[in-house]
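User: Can you recover a sequence for this backbone? Please restate the input before giving your answer.

Assistant: Of course. Working from this structure:
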């Protein structure tokens, strides 16, 4: 029998806030959801196997970071093009704040992955993620700090709290609730590891601990928790892509848990998202392998074929590089690299990103087309 996993509490300001119960919740998975969980676990194993098919897994990680950043930010209404994001990665500047917001997400995820290699997910790590995410963008004055004001969730932007469909816990309750969530994330729990990720994400979004950036930090934590639990070795899938495609269901099912304890519906949806993104990563790996074969075939009859093949192989580890990067990774002279890049430009396989004569940076066009699904 479903029960509401929380209580209503009148805040000091007089708002009827929803305070989630400590985890774990009391519910039983249906046979269908349990089957889906097992399928998702199998597909996560297939993702790890796919990683080994590539000569260098860095490209798979780079792709996941970029697609996750774009999709997660799009959910929040922050739109940036892949070309803008690539140029920002090179120059670290943009005329549009939205581009920095998207880039910040990728930077925060990369930072979080590095951090959890030496320490678990903690309150301080969550604050650190928020600090990275909000660096030099709107809301930066609260970066890395829990909210000190009441927030709310409505059906449209700028909707008053009186019309809110959900009012999270009061500010003075946030730190204790996050501390309880930290305990759950780092405990030995009976639930399947993937189910733990679904539960923890619900709890974080229900606490809604920040004035801005809750959705993005929450989605960062999904990937980091999956890595911490051993479900992934790196950020190889991008759940935000699925959430962005089905955002109405995402918000509705989170609210259904709060209102009626509909855990199976939420977990079934969450697991389905993981399954779909696993399949996309597996398909992406095969696409990359086929692309590499095709590009090498295209340059079979080109002069300086050896150096062109070597330069191409370096791009398949990282799609955006300087001539010096390529020279060092490919063990080629700078002269040979520049000649190869010139040939690859004529074949429209690479292009120069900055438009400058000095400090040039090159990107592999077909690779970026695949990564960003252009």
């Amino acid at each position: 029998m479903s029960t509401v996993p929380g209580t209503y509490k009148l805040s000091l300001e007089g708002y009827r806030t929803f305070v989630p119960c400590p985890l774990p919740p009391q519910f039983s998975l249906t046979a269908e959801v349990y089957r889906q969980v097992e399928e998702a676990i199998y597909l996560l194993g297939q993702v790890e196997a796919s990683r080994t098919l590539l000569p260098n897994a860095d490209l798979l990680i780079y792709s996941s970071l970029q697609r996750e950043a774009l999709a997660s930010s799009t959910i929040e209404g922050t739109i940036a093009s892949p070309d803008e994001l690539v140029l920002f990665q090179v120059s670290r500047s943009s005329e549009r704040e939205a581009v920095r917001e998207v880039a910040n997400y990728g930077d925060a995820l990369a930072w979080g992955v590095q951090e959890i290699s030496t320490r678990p997910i903690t309150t301080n790590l969550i604050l650190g993620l928020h600090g990275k995410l909000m660096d030099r963008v709107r809301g930066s004055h609260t970066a890395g700090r829990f909210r000190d004001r009441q927030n709310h969730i409505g059906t449209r932007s700028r909707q008053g709290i009186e019309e809110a469909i959900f009012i999270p816990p009061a500010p003075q309750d946030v730190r204790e609730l996050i501390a309880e969530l930290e305990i759950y994330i780092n405990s030995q729990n009976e639930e399947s590891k993937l189910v733990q990720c679904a539960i923890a994400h619900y709890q974080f979004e229900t606490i809604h601990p920040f004035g801005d950036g809750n959705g993005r930090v929450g989605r960062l934590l999904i990937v980091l928790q999956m890595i911490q639990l051993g479900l992934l070795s790196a950020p190889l899938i991008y759940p935000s892509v699925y959430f962005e495609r089905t955002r109405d269901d995402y918000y509705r099912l989170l609210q259904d848990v709060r209102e009626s304890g509909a855990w199976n519906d939420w977990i079934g949806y969450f697991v389905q998202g993981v399954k779909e993104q696993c399949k996309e990563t597996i398909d992406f790996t095969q696409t990359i392998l086929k692309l590499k074969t095709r590009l090498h075939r295209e340059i079979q009859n080109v002069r300086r074929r050896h150096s062109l093949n070597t330069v191409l192989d370096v791009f398949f580890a990282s799609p955006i590089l300087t001539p010096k990067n390529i020279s060092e990774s490919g063990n080629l002279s700078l002269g040979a690299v520049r000649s190869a890049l010139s040939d690859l430009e004529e074949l429209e396989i690479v292009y120069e990103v900055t438009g400058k004569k000095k400090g040039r940076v090159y990107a592999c066009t077909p690779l970026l087309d695949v990564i960003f699904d252009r």
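That completes the design. The two ends are 47 Å apart (CA to CA).
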